[in-house]
Design goal:
Blueprint: E1 22-28, E2 31-38, E3 59-67, E4 71-79, E5 83-85, E6 88-103, E7 107-120, H1 126-129, H2 135-141, E8 147-157, E9 162-171, E10 183-193, E11 201-210, E12 225-226, E13 229-230, E14 239-251, E15 254-265
Antiparallel strand pairs: 1-2, 2-3, 3-4, 4-6, 5-6, 6-7, 7-8, 8-9, 9-10, 10-11, 11-14, 12-13, 14-15
């Protein structure tokens, strides 16, 4: 039986293995750190997140941060899988930082930035080790051709037992605002516990859209993939989806769920993107 996140090799005819999670964590007075392997999920949802989700295999990373009652800062750097290209091996890295604000039972707001970089024999770039500088400015000022992605996500808890949530992903931001279109993905949804007073019922409705060339880049080491799986949205790019579901918690051992989905998928694929520019006339 296949396991969609499995990233190992068969040791014997019927024996194999893969360690999903393994890390050491430290926390003291709001400061935290970790080294090891785990999924990094940022945003109001889990596998459906657009910037960082648990869709790809878990990352081997160094993770540092600080949190207070109303604010949190996260930073991590990871070594991704190598890419074979024209008889060369391209090394790959990912660095990311995030600043989030929250008021308990009221709202959450997160601002994130991710940098993918690498190349033939390229070492770790000290600009991206620094968690306190904007990655986009650094690569623009130095003329680098790295892949920078931005994320904005929010959740509003209103009214009682209801959450309105959303996420905006901006890939290939154009600082001149006119040379080519910004490539974006976005999500908007609402979920609710006990709607209309119905006990043990949870409902959710959302719309997600990821445009044609999101997650792509003209450099193969900068494609937003990890072991050929999208690091962000599990549906990849060039896709939108409307989702509605209702779940009834019958008992500790039984949940009953009714779900409706309407999906559209175009021909765009992350691994096939090899252009440095996107024309305005390209449609979803």
């Amino acid at each position: 039986e296949s396991y969609w996140q499995f990233n190992g090799r068969v040791w014997d005819e019927k024996i194999t293995g893969w360690l999903d999670h393994g890390a050491v964590y430290y926390y003291n007075k709001g400061f935290f750190g970790s080294i090891g392997r785990s999924s990094m999920i940022w945003g109001p949802e889990q596998r459906d997140a657009l910037l960082l989700s648990d869709n790809a295999p878990q990352l081997d990373r160094i993770w540092l941060g600080y949190e207070h009652r109303a604010i949190r800062f996260d930073y991590f750097i990871s070594r991704l899988d190598d890419v074979k290209y024209n008889d060369s091996t391209l090394v790959r890295y990912m660095s990311a930082h995030r600043l989030s604000f929250r008021k308990q039972n009221a709202f959450e707001l997160g601002l994130s930035e991710v940098a993918l970089f690498g190349g033939y024999g390229r070492p770790v770039d000290w600009r991206y080790i620094n968690p306190f500088v904007p990655y986009y400015w650094e690569q623009w000022n130095r003329g680098s051709d790295d892949n920078i992605l931005f994320g904005l996500d929010f959740a509003i808890y209103w009214p009682h037992q209801c959450r309105i949530f959303g996420e905006l992903l901006i890939d290939d931001f154009q600082i001149d605002l006119k040379s080519e279109p910004h490539q974006v993905g976005y999500k908007l949804g609402i979920d609710m516990m006990q709607p209309l007073g119905l006990d043990r019922v949870f409902t959710k409705a959302s719309y997600t859209r990821v445009n044609t060339t999101v997650y792509g880049q003209n450099q193969p080491q900068n494609l937003y993939l990890y072991y050929n799986k999208p690091i962000g949205y599990f549906g990849s790019n060039d896709q939108d989806r409307f989702l509605a579901m209702a779940r009834y918690h019958a008992s500790r051992a039984l949940d009953l769920e009714l779900e409706f989905q309407f999906n559209r998928r175009g021909e765009g694929r992350i691994e096939k993107h090899d252009r440095s520019g996107v024309p305005f006339e390209e449609k979803f």
